[in-house]
Amino acid sequence: MADPLFSVADKVVAVSGGLGQIGAEFVRAFHERDARVAVLSRDVDPERARSVLGDLAGSDRLALVPVDVTEKEAVEAALASIEELWDVPDALINNAGLDTQPSAPAQASGPFEDFPEELFREVVDVDLVGTFLMTQAFGAAMRRVGKSGSIVNVGSIYGLVSPVQEIYAHLGAETGVPFVKPVAASAAKAGIYNLTRYCATYWAQHGIRVNTLTPAGVARDTQDAQFQANYTARIPIGRMAEADEYNGAAIFLVADASRYMTGANLVVDGGWTAW
Ligand SMILES: NC(=O)c1ccc[n+]([C@@H]2O[C@H](COP(=O)([O-])OP(=O)(O)OC[C@H]3O[C@@H](n4cnc5c(N)ncnc54)[C@H](O)[C@@H]3O)[C@@H](O)[C@H]2O)c1
């Protein structure tokens, strides 16, 4: 029997970046628990959706909705199409994000002193402004129709503490430019925590809850063994995360089990920030 405390059945759940590594796991987890899931993505090519989500992509409880979270009009159009199809969402997972990868040009992954302003603005635009625009539109709609909604903002351990540069230093060996984990996502994600608290207190009387979920690094095939070993050494649990290991926290934050929780930060980091 499904536990009503953790039930998300019949809820309309919107997941931004829903075809990304963690986002697709959120989509699967909510869909498996009988929610109706709006997969908000910049790329809504059905072929791509099928390659990421498999048969789920054809489910009548799943909708592919185009959005660029940095564009207010696109955000409002995405919300309107979900409302027209189902209803105002009961939950929004602000998962879309941009980070600078080791494959970035040397200038973008080199010394902080040379980090390009343009790239800093681009990352802040997605990670912070995008979360603001999505939260503003979806929260306003929840308030308009009197829904007790839940908004989950995905943060990062690197929004709580600084990256440990030693983990990455070997990555530039081939190019001769030592890789420096860039500043932009750290700064943008840090802003998520007080955007969350602000909206949580602002909407608390209206039954709309807003919390942050803080993940640590997920293992990917593209990471080299040295990086994985360096990263793992920093994690008390002794391994990097699997992409689906944030699902329990996301379900908890949307379900009734967390009904007295708002403005909080649920840290799921294998103990990274405990050291
Ligand atoms: N993977 C990790 O190790 C890790 C660690 C800490 C935090 N996080 C956070 O978790 C979230 C998901 O990360 P992920 O690793 O799955 O990333 P990912 O790159 O696999 O997915 C992110 C998704 O966001 C989408 N996106 C980017 N810009 C967008 C825009 N302007 N409009 C709409 N969508 C946009 C991308 O298309 C992509 O599908 C991010 O917020 C990330 O910062 C990830």
UniProtKB/TrEMBL annotation:
Q: Which Gene3D superfamilies does UniProt cross-reference here?
A: NAD(P)-binding Rossmann-like Domain
Q: Which family does it belong to?
A: Belongs to the short-chain dehydrogenases/reductases (SDR) family.
One Pfam entry name: adh_short_C2
Identify this protein by name.
Answer: NAD(P)-dependent dehydrogenase (Short-subunit alcohol dehydrogenase family)
The record lists the organism as Jiangella mangrovi
* GO MF annotation, one: oxidoreductase activity, acting on the CH-OH group of donors, NAD or NADP as acceptor
Keyword field contains Oxidoreductase: yes
Keyword list (alphabetical) reads: Oxidoreductase
The record ties this protein, via InterPro entries, to: NAD(P)-bd_dom_sf, SDR_fam
Q: Does the keyword Acetylation apply?
A: no
TM stretches of this protein: none
Question: Which superkingdom?
Answer: Bacteria
